[in-house]
Amino acid sequence: MNTSRIAIVTGGSGGIGRCTAMALARAGCRVYEFSRREKAPTPGVEHLTADMTDEASVQATVAEVERREGRIDILVCNAGFGISGAAEYTAPEDAHAQLELNLYGADRAARAVIPVMRAQGGGRIVCMSSIAGILPIPFQLWYSVSKAAINAYVLALQNEVRPFGISVCAVMPGDIASGFTANRKKTLREDAYGGRVARSVARMEHDEETGMSPEAAGAFIAKTALRRSSRPLMPWVCLTRRRLLRRSCCHGGCRTASLGGCTRNKYRCAHG
Are 222 and 236 in contact (CB under 8 A)? Predict the structure, then answer.
């Protein structure tokens, strides 16, 4: 009889997801990663093809894991991507696609595993959020919205499923040096913005490229997933106070209650 904990990681073919899957495997879990295509074999991890934007695909792939293993102990909802640009120039279909994967993709996976976890008496669901969920980033409006929505989703879901022994949390990392930066969809139309969009995105991407390693992020996420419970919102930020402040505040005297005060924000300020 297999006594290993059974884990699913969505978006696990590369970057943070791959590192999370590998860390779970090293901890003794039997790990399945869900993605549309396998980029390269991951040691100790089995790939299953799934499209997180398709309800039938997610349900069928989760059912396959249950058929093989008889249980599902851990779900890490990692699949996601980012878009950037001024809100007024962001195409509605791009905004919808952002929510479709980042928010509704996590919901599809959670809804698929909850009946399995309830029947077995418990489980653990971890959703990838971002510090942008509590400190929204200008010119990444829809990404920030998707992560704020994940936080609200986790807080509500945690209270719904706690009586079944299922715990839910969101991990909110800061900058991570991964393929996420290169894969971001950009709309750099400026018009009245006078170069602020390009400067903001370039500086944000520099911070990402010099951020924490995906291996460190994956290890933290795996450690969180292996816990029976934790605080529902788990910030883990490799950012200086200065970097946090300049993301969260605008030039001209706005206030950020959680950090206290304001500074010129290099992401938003026209003066750079």
Answer: no
Percent of the chain with pLDDT over 70: 75
In a domain, 223, yes or no: yes
Whether 76 is in a domain gets the answer yes
Question: Which of 32, 35, 84, 143 does the annotation list as catalytic?
Answer: 143
User: For residue 39, what pLDDT band results from cuts at 50, 70 and 90?
Assistant: confident
Active-site option among 35, 84, 129, 200: 129
- Model confidence over 137-193: pLDDT tens digits? 888 889 899 999 999 999 999 999 999 999 999 998 766 655 555 566 666 677 787
Question: Are 198 and 249 contained in the same domain?
Answer: no
| Each residue's pLDDT tens digit, 52-68 | 999 999 999 999 999 99
Which of 32, 130, 147, 267 is flagged as catalytic? 147
Q: Could you list the residue range(s) of the whole structural domain that residue 92 is in?
A: 6-239
State yes or no: is 57 an active-site residue.
no
Give CA–CA dist 118/155, Å, rounded. 18
- Amino acid at position 254, single letter: C
Whether 223 sits among the annotated catalytic residues: the reply is no
| Residue 13 designated active-site | yes
Which pTM value belongs to this model? 0.81
Nearest Cα residue to 70 out of 163, 1, 22, 12: 1
What is the rounded distance in angstroms from the CA atom of residue 164 to the CA atom of residue 229? 13
Question: Could you tell me if 267 and 217 lie in one domain?
Answer: no
Q: Which two tokens stand for residue 91?
A: 């195409």
Same domain assignment for residues 133 and 248: no
pLDDT tens-digit profile of 109-122? 999 999 999 999 99
Residue 1 lies in a domain: no
Instruction: Indicate if 186 belongs to the active site.
Output: no
